[in-house]
Amino acid sequence: MTLLSVKVSTCSFDGQKPGTSGLRKNVTIFKQKNYTENFVQSILTALGTELAGSTLVVGGDGRYYLKEAVDIIIKMCAANGVAKVIVGQNGILSTPAVSCIIRKYKTTGGIILTASHNPGGPNGDFGIKFNCSNGGPAPDGVTNKIYEISMDIDEYSISPTLQVDVSKIGTTQHDVDGRKYTVEVIDSVSDYFEMTKEIFDLDAIKKLLATKKLVVLLDAMHGVVGPYVKRILCQELGMPESSAVNCTPLEDFGGHHPDPNLTYAAELVKAMQSGDYGLGAAFDGDGDRNMILGHKGFFVTPSDSLAVIAANIDCIPYFKKTGVKGFSRSMPTAGAVDRVAAKIGKEFFEVPTGWKYFGNLMDAGRLSLCGEESFGTGSDHIREKDGLWACLAWLSVLASKQQSVEEILKNHWATYGRNFFTRYDYENVESEPANKMMTNLGKLIEDASLIGRGFNHGDKAFKVAKADNFEYTDPIDGSVAKKQGIRIIFEDGSRIVFRLSGTGSSGATIRMYIDSYEADSTKHCLDAQDMLKPLVEIALQMSQLRELTGRQKPTVIT
Ligand code: VG1
Ligand code: CO
Question: Which distant-in-sequence residues (6+ apart) come within 8 Å of 342 by Cβ?
Answer without folding.
Answer: 348
